Amino acid sequence: METISLRFDAEEREALKRQHIKHELLDYRYYLDKAKWLEEKIALLDERLNGGIGSAPLGAYKSTAVKGDWIVAAISEQDELIAEKKIVDNHIETVQSWIGILSEEQYEAVYCYVIVHNCKELEECTKLLEMTNSKALLRLIDRSIAEISQNI
């Protein structure tokens, strides 16, 4: 199979970078929710492995080898969840560092329109942010994403 070489000029590269930033901002709430779910799942497995909850139904295992297999599987699952959580935490930390460089006005606009409303409800966000019109909000969002792009 032939490999395809992709080349981008500076303008295309910048457009792709801004698109990536916007997608990460859109996914931020998903990552926060996923991190919480993973924390709960890891804690539950930790509790079960430490005997807080019966690791396995009593009498379900006739031998200690089978019960040991459950423990090995649970530890393996927990390790996978911890690795996945590190990836999710990386996404969260990245977005937090990006929005941390924005001015308060930019932060509020990005948080309201992009993160909370997923680039929908433009008029509602315009009103919530007490902006003059929706075009002003869109320009502020574009400037905010451009600023993030320049600083990463």
Kindly describe this structure.
The chain is flat and about 65 Å long. Helix 1 crosses helix 5 (134-151). It has 152 residues and is an all-alpha fold. 76% of the residues lie in helices and 0% in strands.
Secondary-structure element string:
HHHHH
Average pLDDT, rounded to a whole number, is: 88
C-alpha-based Rg, rounded: 23 Å
Number of helices: 5
Tally the beta strands: 0
Helical/strand content category = mainly alpha
For the report, how would you describe the main beta sheet? none
Strand content: under 5%
Head-to-tail CA distance between termini: 35 Å
Query: How much helix is in the residues?
Result: over 70%
The outline comes out as flat
Key descriptive features of the protein:
76% helix, mainly alpha, 0% strand, 5 helices
Q: Short summary of the structure?
A:
Helix 1 packs across helix 5 and helix 3 (104-116) packs across helix 5. The protein has helices at 10-49, 64-100, 104-116, 122-128, 134-151.
What are the SSEs and their pairings?
Elements: H1 10-49, H2 64-100, H3 104-116, H4 122-128, H5 134-151
